[in-house]
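Sequence in, structure out.
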Amino acid sequence: MAIFDIIKKFVSPSASKTTEQENFATTQMPSFKIKVIEFSDNVEGNSGEIIARQLSSKEGIEVSYFDEPFNKSFLNLESRTLFDLIDKGQTILDKTRSDVLIWGYREGNRIRLNFQTPSQYEDEELAFVSLMDSLYIPARPETGNYPDALINLIYGGVLSAINASSAQTKIYKRYLLKKNIDCLSKDNSAKSLSIEYMPYVMNFLGIIYLSYSFDKSDGRDFKIVKSLFDTALKHQDLISSPIHLGCIYNHLGQLYDCATRYLAKNPAAYFKGAIEYYRLSQKYLSKYTYPYDYGYISYKLSKLFFSYWRQKEDIQALRDAVFQLREAEKIYTYALFPEFWAEIQGQLGYLLSLLGNFTQSESIAELAVSCYKNRQKVITERRDPILWADCSENIGDIYYRIGKNKSDKEALEEALEHFHDALYIFENAQQSERIKKLTVDIAKTNQSLNQI
């Protein structure tokens, strides 16, 4: 069976028709900027230019070719050159203000494509594509162009990689993905593509469909996406590097992760599946070789364990959530990722405060305070006063609990100081409900002080 025929087993053309009310024909919509970097090839060729030209006709994207010379030896995806790849890509993204970079690297008679976006390894939760996700294509098209189905697959990969931050761009991205899936389900132009490309094609078909359907509470969509990734795994003997296998397991984890939030049936099974696949992925994308993927998976695992704790009140799940977030913290440091580090610190502060409260551990509570104070190093009073005040209020709550439980005068005085810091901000912002709560907290704290 031809590779692109396989998707027809899962997606019928009628299932992907644009029946939604999102009619963009007469509306001025955003155009996502895509930059195709001149491919790293060992012979004279122009496959990168061909792809750029063919993609330029696709809806919703503005494609250009970047052929400024620079050393591309870091494109081998070895762990020792990974930081060079990310840094160079980020420099080009900043310089060109692009939404997606397409890298191409020659391996034998194939070109490996990878997709890089701004803030790819931070808490965007807007795309499922990793920089390690690789799509292999023939190094040279048999004719002057690549088959339409292959270009549509690359186009779908580009759309899936886009970090659509606003409501408008999210809707538009989904609309384009829906049309892309419809095209892929109808096109037979890549029938001659060799079986060696199967796992990579199926991985990206899974990513494309997951990117379109991830927030739909539809069990059929779950089965379709899982079937695509399962088909990729059935051909894992054709996979050239364990990195690629790790990426497929990661996407299966993402699929089950989404199911825990949007599918009510068998929630425990979805939690178990997400955790198992994420952990399996980390065996191939390990902490010491591919740290950013490992760290982000740890971040996602922390959220899963926390959600599980909220449902089951299993204290071990809360401990596991803290452990996984600590793993992410080791990789997303203040020096390299200040914004994401601050987000992690805020979440750690919350988890540790809960754990400290349940275990009645003052030392854990103090760790929570340290995390909230760490967040305030980035989320300063001048830069974002409301978030800064949130941290101060949370610190005050922790010190109040310590002071009340231990009859500790110093802890209660610390609580008062932080409550007043937060109150000042909320008064200036005229947030009446927050002011009422803090006024009550301050009164309770003063009462506890008077009783010591």
